[in-house]
Amino acid sequence: MAGGMLIIGAGECGGRAALALRDLDYQGPVTLVGDEPHLPYERPPLSKEAMASDAPEIKAIASDAILAEKSIRHVHSVQAVAIDRAAHTVRLSDGSVLPYDKLLLATGSTPRKLPMPGLGPRCVYLRTFADALAIRAHLTPGNRIAIIGGGFIGLELAAAARKLGAAVTVIEAQPRILMRGVPAAIAEIIHEAHVAEGVDVLCGDGIASIADDGNEVRTTLAGGREISADLAIIGIGAVPVTGLAAEAGLTIDNGIAVDAELRSSDPDIFVAGDCCSFPLAVYGGRRVRLEAWRNAQEQGALAARNMLGAGEAHAAVPWFWSDQYGLSLQIAGLSDEGKNIVRRDLGDGAFILFHLAEDGRLVAASGIGPGNAVARDIRLAEMLIAKRAKPAPEALGSQDVKLKSLLAA
Amino acid sequence: MSDWVEACATGDIDEEDVMRFDHGGRTFAIYRSPDDEFFATDGLCTHEKVHLADGLVMDDIIECPKHNGRFNYKTGDARGAPVCINLKTYPVKVDAGKVLIQIG
């Protein structure tokens, strides 16, 4: 066992996996390799709290002291360039070669690039802390910010930019914002919140051209409208980082493909987090890839257990959240599995949509409201989804029936 | 130092539930366990300062409403990622239908 556990990718997922290996009393070498100069850190604040601060700080998952105490070797600012599966080694960009007994690929995802000419220095993406700092510097009163893409990252940044007094335009080619994974009724609430805060939200009009002359970015829509901005932030989704795995001959299927135990087509190589395509047991093994913080955390921990031989199948229900202005959205499950929707009002404008499959099974729940108004019921819904429960629609829709009581049924 | 403060009436909280209690510029969470005992902790999660009273109580665990950080509300022990700092707990007593907590 000379090689120990090697983790490529030092984000939420890789960081959690390294800590989990030690929590599980693994005694061999644990090495965490990351291409950023920072300690493993949480990315969700990058589009939220980091933007609200004049001097954003990293929210580290573990300090240098904790890593040292747990004998986790953190190799930073380098990229893994090749896996030699036969030799059980990984070569890094600084020329060094690291051995492994088990390898975890937690290489994450990278922003989807806008496939257009005309982009320049004022067209940016958000993935890393460095990206966040660069964007934050532009969020000043009166500065014009164009957000390309009405997804979560773009909308959270739009909210942050408005709070700081910038003039914000959101450009979404689809007929509405949050087309992917968010029900129309909830997207509408978020859309209205942005409009009420003074954001110009343009939907249903694709981009014809972009011109960045270094001083400003001019975006021309197919319908002829022209938007000039001091900064264009592009948030049109993410793509899994699979190059290293593909070159090593691992199976790729919208991400690095793994089995229920997060094992790739090489039994000594595990995969977790944004880069991982895995069978989701709760929906009959439907293959999915999730770009979500909690998934990264849970899969990192699960991969650690399975690297040590636990043989445990993934069983979690997808869950994510978003904060914009005073609103918080939470979604458990995959709403596209549902056929019918039941609405439950919680007061203060907060509500949850329960998504039921044709056979009555609860497959997802989408909630929105001020603060954390929907959190508790979404968590209970998540447990019901995990149980594959078929709760009575009348019970789900009635505030008088406690969701907790349905769990016992 | 026996600074007992009335937080609520026993009937204000269901069994296996939690409520928020603010006092003197501080915020607390008061719990009623499934076996009908009362407990108190700091009100904010040690991870990102979220009000725990919006979270879910299951047995002796309170789960943060935001990131599912879990604590044993009887002891304050953090139960795994993303929380690693324990929650401060406070002595509680019930007197004539009132829940009192001792704020140190």
TrEMBL record, chain A:
Molecular function via GO: oxidoreductase activity, acting on NAD(P)H
A Pfam family: Reductase_C
Domain Reductase C-terminal: 319-407
Any single Gene Ontology cellular-component annotation: cytoplasm
Keyword tags: FAD, Flavoprotein, Oxidoreductase
Positions of the FAD/NAD(P)-binding domain: 6-300
Gene3D superfamilies: 3.30.390.30, FAD/NAD(P)-binding domain (3.50.50.60)
Superkingdom to which the source organism belongs: Bacteria
Cofactor(s) required, per the database record: FAD
Parts of the chain that traverse the membrane: none
PANTHER family noted in UniProt: APOPTOSIS-INDUCING FACTOR 1 (PTHR43557), RIESKE DOMAIN-CONTAINING PROTEIN-RELATED (PTHR43557:SF2)
The protein's name in its UniProt record: FAD-dependent pyridine nucleotide-disulfide oxidoreductase
Species per Swiss-Prot/TrEMBL record: Mesorhizobium ciceri biovar biserrulae (strain HAMBI 2942 / LMG 23838 / WSM1271)
UniProtKB/TrEMBL annotation, chain B:
Cofactor: [2Fe-2S] cluster
Keywords for the protein's UniProt record, in alphabetical order: 2Fe-2S, Iron, Iron-sulfur, Metal-binding
Domain Rieske: 5-101
Presence of the UniProt keyword Metal-binding in the record: yes
Source taxon at top rank: Bacteria
Pfam families (alphabetical): Rieske (PF00355)
PROSITE patterns, per the entry: RIESKE
GO molecular function, one term: 2 iron, 2 sulfur cluster binding
The keyword DNA damage is annotated on this UniProt entry: no
Protein family: Belongs to the bacterial ring-hydroxylating dioxygenase ferredoxin component family.
Protein known as: MocE family 2Fe-2S type ferredoxin
Annotated source species: Mesorhizobium ciceri
Lineage of origin: Bacteria, Pseudomonadati, Pseudomonadota, Alphaproteobacteria, Hyphomicrobiales
